[in-house]
Amino acid sequence: xxxxxxxxxxxxxxxxxxxxxxxxxxxxxxxxxxxxxxxxxxxxxxxxxxxxxxxxxxxxxxxxxxxxxxxxxxxxxxxxxxxxxxxxxxxxxxxxxxxxxxxxxxxxxxxxxxxxxxxxxxxxxxxxxxxxxxxxxxxxxxxxx
Length: 145
Prior knowledge:
single chain, alpha+beta
């Protein structure tokens, strides 16, 4: 299994960034068109991104420092629901919050596609977390073979 790691800095307090990882409205502000989440260990993590149903569950929720969810696609043989793990670590910095993302347990041939997705969506979080509007995201599509 493989992983993708990256980090960003956001001009918002960790509490504001955290809310964008654990609430339906927060998640849909930057990541998907629909979210249905229950942010507690064992709680549901369901987000529809560009018509792709991401499904998993919350593994760790530590306000406002860390969120871990399982991640996969409903009906996928390559990365089924809950098959991989996404971890967000939030650290206060002078300008706001540093977010370190680790998406692990990915098949080696899935890293590039997930890196492409995170590189698209994390800049939207940079805008949304401080209260901005990253705009509609209806045209984005994942990499395909």
